[in-house]
Amino acid sequence: MERLLVVTAHGDDETLGAGGTIARLADEGVAVALLVLTDDDGSRTASGTGGGTKRVAAIEQAAGILGVKQVRVHGFGDNRLDTIGQLELNKVVEREVRQFEPDTVFAPSLADLNLDHQLVSRAARVAGRPGRSPVREIRCFEIRSATDAGEAAGLPTFHPACWQQLAEEHLDRKLQALRAYGVECEAWPSARSERGVRALAEYRGSQVGVPLAEAFELVRRVLP
Ligand SMILES: [Zn+2]
How far, in Å, is the centroid of ligand 1 from the Cα of 16? Predict the structure, then answer.
């Protein structure tokens, strides 16, 4: 892996889903770009208005902590990506793939209940389709609250096929990046709490006999 594009619906998805892995890969010299499709947190504020500039600043701060080199945030509305339409989302991600030329793409899982996540997951698959892009590998990460909600709603379960081992330092950077999002970092027993994030890393690690890990679904890998 030399060039990784992380595609997400919301700022914080990349941190919750793959923050430790991004930090580790960036340290190892992988060029990482982040594409976030929405720039507000409208669904979580009483007024229904978004975070706008504040949100973008948090995304950039978190990206800096994780070692992401390039950040692009689109101004679509939170939980309204269905009003944009799949085709338009595909085009946005395709444009990014054309410009950044990643060999690997990380995206949300289709197991997530959140519709924005599902739309972005599909757009990443379309943009990274074989023969039409340089993408050789697509992985999907889990975003606890959304993936858990999907499981509780009867969607197909998150089915990991890759485990990325993490050191304490990578988990620390993930937690530090999560703090950049402020309110998104909640109190235990929320899955978004620091304890919840650590518990998941320990659980995923223990599945494969290592102290800490993040798990991914493998959509496709083209071997040389
Ligand atoms: Zn999200």
Answer: 9
What single letter denotes the amino acid at residue 172?
D
- The rounded Å distance from CA 223 to ligand 1 centre is 30
CA of 117 to the centre of ligand 1 (A): 6
- Centre of ligand 1 to C-alpha 39, Å, is 11
**Could you give the domains of the chain?**
3-163+216-221 (3.40.50.10320)
Q: Can you tell me the distance from the alpha carbon of 32 to that of 53, in angstroms, rounded to the nearest whole number?
A: 22
pTM (two decimals): 0.93
**For every one of its 224 residues, what pLDDT tens digit does the chain have, with 9 covering 90 and above?**
999 999 999 999 999 999 999 999 999 999 999 999 998 764 444 334 445 678 899 999 999 999 999 999 998 988 889 999 999 999 999 999 999 999 999 999 999 999 999 999 999 999 999 988 999 999 999 998 888 889 899 988 999 999 999 999 999 999 999 999 986 668 898 888 999 999 999 999 999 999 999 999 999 999 98
Q: How far is the CA of 12 from the centre of ligand 1 (A)?
A: 7
